[in-house]
Fold:
Amino acid sequence: MTWRFVGLAERLLQFRRTNRISSAEIARRAGLTAQTLHLIERGKVMPSTETIEKIARATSLDPGWLAFGVSNSGLARHITVAPGFDSDALVTDLLSLLRANSGVIDDVYKYLDSTGAHEWRALLHQPDFSSVVSSFPMTELIEALVGIVDVNDPVDLVGLGCGTAEREMALVKRLVARRRRNLRLHLLDISVSLLGAAVQASDEYCRSHSIPVLALLGNFHNLPEFAFLLTGDSPRRRIITMFGLTFSNLDNEVQFLRRSMGWVNHEDILVLDVPSAATESSDRSEIIRRDKTLARKRGDWQSVAYRFLTGPIRRNVDGIAEIKIQTDLDQASCVIPGSYAIVNRARVQLLSGESKQFVIGYSKRYDLSKLASHMDGEGWKLINGFHYGPDNYGLVGVFQRHDPRPKRGRRPKNAQ
Structure:
């Protein structure tokens, strides 16, 4: 595996000089403006995948070599570092947080080192947890997607927080089996360990079926800064997936939709994989009684989960005498009606006698009908939804982008 980020401008300029061809001529062949190509050559803008393919066709160059210095005919895959991504700065922020006596350890910090990624994969294979993972309704999801995506539509599958991309690859294979041929796979994750595994896992199949893969190492909290890499110059239908409960772990998922998904086009599809509310009731005592995560008796999978959640503390705080975990119900902080959150806090007792307390996990549960109603107001129409797993633990919602209904007192733009 090789890492590539810069060099496209130099390779394009090298090609022009060697072949004595003007930038204006390449722009004409590629269907671009001369100004666009000029900015690319000067390194002022990074072109989208679609633009790179256009330039590659216009120059008869291998698009992999043009973009990353790697030929698609070779054995090496690549990981592209998203603009602005700085893992060292994230580690610095984490260490500063842990020096304080309290704070919230965001999920991004748990995957920064290979040990954290390893502990996450161990959790996925713990028997109780894996029974939920293996019951994922992939067949139902495919049926919902093929009902709204035409067989001839060019499709980009975009996996946000893809991890090892097992579900994204399962989805790709099912789409290919349904004769979807014009596919591209975009994978985004913050862990180089998990993303590396995803690239390796996708390599052979995607090569043999001519499916381009763009693997982005980045923080999707900063998605607006590099979303241009996921957009094309010609219409393509995007299927955006947030598997692995990623959406439910966001501090404010509504603000994420508003601020970080503005690049999504009309009729693009968003697949959310989230935990299901244990009850439709908003009564606190009823939720505590029905949600097994809040049970006093802890199962084996929770011990593995707590080890993963406390990883940043165990690996970066010296002199720990004991870590105690407390699991609570939070209804006050949830924005979407019908949802509630499970909050895990770690009380850290040091050998010095000092104590610290951190929020180490925050995961919301949703009622499908109330989630659908709220999403519709945000511009996402529910196409289909499925419960899965023991006690209907998991919930998959398939949403399609549309123009949100106008707020009360406002008329639609096209109204006469």
Summary: Residues 257 and 265 are 13 Å apart (CA to CA).
